[in-house]
Specification:
Strand order of the largest sheet: 2-1-3-4-5
Distance between the termini: 50 Å
Number of strands: 5
Radius of gyration: 18 Å
Order of helices and strands: HEHEHEHEHEH
Structural class: alpha/beta
Low-confidence stretches: none
Mean pLDDT: 88
Helix content: 40-55%
């Protein structure tokens, strides 16, 4: 928690079947702390997105078998740049675990989201702990996000009965 709270920047990466977990964690983290990035292929090169990582930063990788070479390469680069590498993986012997400073292991026994409840529970626990640790600054950021959501009218409003308000007659 201290590593994720005190880092200058946090990069959250998870590709293929790990992408939904990384996206969920990264979006939440980005709302409660500044300088949180989610490098993804197809949105510029991964190289461009990970290039700024440096000492004082954290790379949080989610990497399960079959281990994505792009994720492992990002982990190698982060270590080379003296950033801290945290990984969530399926075994302490995985290629991701061998590249990390801190390893969370959750068995991923059944392929295709087999352990997603445990994975989401761990990520949610990390998120809540970070939120509590950051206190007022995280609450302020969440308030700012809520104001912007209102300004952009991102969500469909509900009427007094709880039904969605339709703008089309």
């Amino acid at each position: 928690i201290e590593l994720l709270t005190n880092a200058a920047s946090v990069y959250v990466i998870g590709l293929r079947s790990s992408a939904p977990l990384a996206l969920n964690f990264g979006i939440g983290l980005r709302q409660i702390r500044p300088n949180c990035f989610m490098p993804q292929p197809g949105i510029g090169d991964l190289v461009d997105q990970i290039a700024p990582i440096s000492e004082g930063d954290v790379l949080f990788s989610i990497c399960f078998g079959r281990y994505m070479r792009d994720t492992l390469n990002c982990m190698d680069y982060a270590r080379k740049m003296n950033a801290t590498v945290i990984t969530l993986t399926d075994t302490p012997l995985s290629p991701a675990a061998k590249r990390a400073d801190l390893v969370f292991v959750i068995r991923y026994g059944v392929w295709f989201y087999g352990a997603s409840t445990a994975l989401f529970s761990l990520l949610n626990a990390l998120m809540i702990s970070i939120l509590l640790r950051q206190g007022a600054s995280a609450q302020h950021r969440l308030g700012q996000v809520d104001k912007i959501i209102e300004q952009f009218q991102i969500f469909q409003p509900l009427d007094d009965t709880g039904a969605h308000v339709s703008e089309v007659p």
